[in-house]
Structures are given as C-alpha cells and as structure tokens.
UniProtKB/TrEMBL annotation:
Residues 5-113 form the HIT domain. The lineage of its organism: Bacteria, Pseudomonadati, Bacteroidota, Flavobacteriia, Flavobacteriales. Pfam families: HIT. A motif (Histidine triad motif) lies at residues 98-102. The active site is at H100. This is HIT domain-containing protein. InterPro entries: HINT, Histidine_triad_CS, Histidine_triad_HIT, HIT-like, HIT-like_sf.
Amino acid sequence: MIDCIFCKIINRELPASIIHEDDQVIAFMDIQPVNPGHILVVPKVHREFIAELDEDLTSRMFNVAAKINLAIRKSDIRSEGINYFLADGEAAGQEVFHTHLHIFPRFRNDGFGLRFNENYKSLPEREELDKICGTIRSLLE
C-alpha cells in the first residue's frame, strides 16, 4: 500500500526503532506511546483486518508479542502488567488500517483505561447469550 505508514516502515522508507524482525512480522516502538515500552507487532503483509490473516501469521504475531512481554517484564521498564490491544476496524479505534497488535506496559494510575457505558454492569439473560453464541458458533470455519 503506497500510503500505509507501516508498509513504509517495513520497506525502510520511514525510520523505526525495531525490536524484532523475521520473514513474517516486524515489531517496533510506537511513536505515540501509552507508556514507555509501547511496542507494535505488525505483519509484513498488508491486511486491514486480523480476519484477513491466516492462522499461522496471527499465531506468529502473538508468539512474538509473548516474547516481547517477557523481555519487558525482565527489563527495568516500569511495568506492573502488560496490555495487548488490537483495534480491528474504525469503530474499534483502528487508526492505521494495517493490522497491528499493541503491547504496552501498565502500572497503577498511569492514566490509561477503557471507558464502559452505563449498561456494562447489567447482566444479559442466558437465553440472549446462548442466541448470540449460536449465531457466532454456526459461522466458525
């Protein structure tokens, strides 16, 4: 993709602080970090949504993320926990339309968080959960 910032990083048209690279994925520092140590794991093939990746590539992204998680925990980077975040589509908060997995260290009162609506605490009826479950399960490949 000619205008994709991640494709430009992969092709070395833009600079990046690269943590890991292999034939399938690249991982580099986020230039707008939630906290120090915020890293992106990006497939080298341009795909907008994670469902467009094959299972092996999706697995590779998460395997690399797990190794980076361990490295962060071993480091002196402030981290009481680690978040993985993957926004899949604009409504989910995706801003760069090339699949990417965020890994970022977390600590108490770091200022980051998810905001839930007022209905979050209300529990749906089991029948509703079963209906949604059945719909999704029937479409699994």
